[in-house]
Amino acid sequence: MSHGTKKPREIEQEQLAVGFQIAPMIDVVFVIMLFFMVMVGSVKVERELKSQLPGLAPPSDSAPQEMPDEIIVGVEESGAVTLNEEEFDSGRPDKALPDFISTLKRLKQEADNRNAKVIVTIQAEEQATYERVIDVLNALSVAKVANVTFTVGGDEGF
């Protein structure tokens, strides 16, 4: 007698517990720790090297160099130009500023004779015209003054 038709045997699937596996994580941490321990030995220690770059070095036994001459040029709202609080070319609406240029040339020549630098700071008032500032820059260019910085506004806020 036959048992009739047998159902195919059902394969029982094992239910795996899917959760956080700690063993692989510990292995990864040990590998990373081993990597950093090995790399620490290869770090190069920086040391200061006393070296002299090629070029002209000032002799140490010579007289100390002159401090740079600092000139403050003011550009006022009215268009007046001042040099160390002394007004120049105020009566003329001339864009060329001839008195200002001649004074700058004289100051530049004196500084060159002493091997000193001329540093110019332009203090323009907030309402001063850009055109007048450009006139001052042109005058500095004619006098061959190259070290120029800008400040805007007055010293009242400081």
The strand order across the widest sheet is 3-2-1-4-5
**Using only CA atoms, what is the Rg?**
40 Å
Shape: elongated
Q: Estimate the helix proportion, in percent.
A: 25-40%
Tell me the quaternary state: single chain
Largest sheet: 5 strands, mixed
Which CATH architecture of the domain at 69-152? 2-Layer Sandwich
Secondary-structure element order, N to C: HEEEHEHE
Mind telling me the CATH class of the domain at 69-152?
A: Alpha Beta
Per CATH, what is the topology of the domain at 69-152? Nucleotidyltransferase, domain 5
Q: What is the CA–CA distance across the termini?
A: 113 Å
Average pLDDT rating: 76
Share of β-strand residues: 15-25%
Contiguous uncertain segments of 5+ residues: none
The total of beta strands comes to 5
Number of helices: 3
Q: How does the helix and strand content classify structurally?
A: alpha/beta
Element layout with pairings:
Blueprint (H helix, E strand, L loop, with lengths): L21 H19 L28 E7 L5 E3 L2 E3 L9 H16 L4 E7 L5 H13 L4 E6 L6
Parallel strand pairs: 1-4, 4-5
Antiparallel strand pairs: 1-2, 2-3
